[in-house]
Amino acid sequence: MPPKGRKHCRSLLPDVLSYLPDNISDVILMHLPCKDAVKTSILSKKWRYHWCRLTELKLDEFLWKTKKDILNPTVKFTKIIYQLLTLHEGPITKFTLNVAHLESCPEIDNFICFLSRNDIQHLVLHLPLGKMYKLPSALFTCSQLRHLNLHNCSIHHPSAFQGFNKLISLELCGVTISSEVLESLISHCPLLEQLVLDIAENSNTVEINAPMLSSFNFSGNISSICLKNVPCLVKASLECDYIKAEDLDFAKVFESCSALEYLLFNLFNSGYSGRLRYEGR
């Protein structure tokens, strides 16, 4: 194409983008990383704040990390969160926060409160190791939650917690939570279908009361788990360290697993290593 023609095409591009239907613009933005979605604000006046209506957001180190960083990563992250709180409009149905690499957890209480008022349905929080971040009570008011994934935090739900009535999947890894709170949390999710637990510190027995549960992955002290009410459980994967095989009470662990079709059981310690795999019809 001649230079004159190319220049003419470039001059038309902003106008073409400006007249795209909103649903097409939304699809484009949803397929871009958050950092690139924000950059679309320079395309035209219409696009300047279009990214502010994104219903799905993912924040991780790639959003702000550059070779010329002079701000402390936690400070920079806090500035980004503040901008989101200030500019975002409408619901956020899916939010992923991965700041596991930071030395300490930034202040996110206000942002979780913001999400609780904006119809959050899918929430993923991967927080830094070290001092556990205590989840604010606002998290337990997210009545629309369907998927919840929490890593490296401390969980204490308030006494007034009414449950997550729409939650279908729950993943807790490296969290600090008492047996009583864990048991209560699971039993207050009546539609729960998928459960992943990676918890090493529980010593008291936790009764799993989840009548709709179909898939269960567990890593930790298996003797602390009792599958009390799981009539729909089809698939289970259990991994355990540092326990004597003779101390396991299989009858207690698998108290109500009449529908079980697939079982993967790994047991490791200094004196014994075993793997059991069962597949039913």
Jot down its keywords.
281 residues; alpha/beta; ten-stranded mixed β-sheet; two-stranded parallel ribbon; 7 helices; elongated; LRR_dom_sf; LRR_FXL15/At3g58940/PEG3-like; F-box_dom
What does the model show?
This protein has 281 residues and is of the alpha/beta class. It has 3 domains: 21-54, no CATH class; 55-167, no CATH class; 194-281, no CATH class. 24% of the residues lie in helices and 25% in strands. The protein contains 7 helices and 14 strands. The strands form 3 sheets. A 10-stranded mixed β-sheet has the order 1-2-3-5-7-8-10-12-13-14, with no helix packed on it. A two-stranded parallel sheet has the order 4-6. A two-stranded parallel sheet has the order 9-11. The mean pLDDT is 79.
* Overall outline: elongated
The total strand number stands at 14
Termini separation comes to 64 Å
Total of domains:
3
Largest sheet: 10 strands, mixed
Element order, helices and strands? HHHEHEHEEEEEHEEEEEHEE
Going across the biggest sheet, name each strand in turn: 1-2-3-5-7-8-10-12-13-14
Strand content: 15-25%
Computed over alpha carbons, the radius of gyration is 23 Å
Oligomer: single chain
pLDDT average, as an integer? Answer: 79
Classification by helices and strands: alpha/beta
Total count of helical runs of at least 4 residues:
7
Unreliable residue stretches:
none
Helix content: 10-25%
InterPro entries: F-box-like_dom_sf, F-box_dom, LRR_dom_sf, LRR_FXL15/At3g58940/PEG3-like
Protein name: Ubiquitin-protein ligase
Domain F-box: 14-67
Pfam families: F-box, LRR_At5g56370
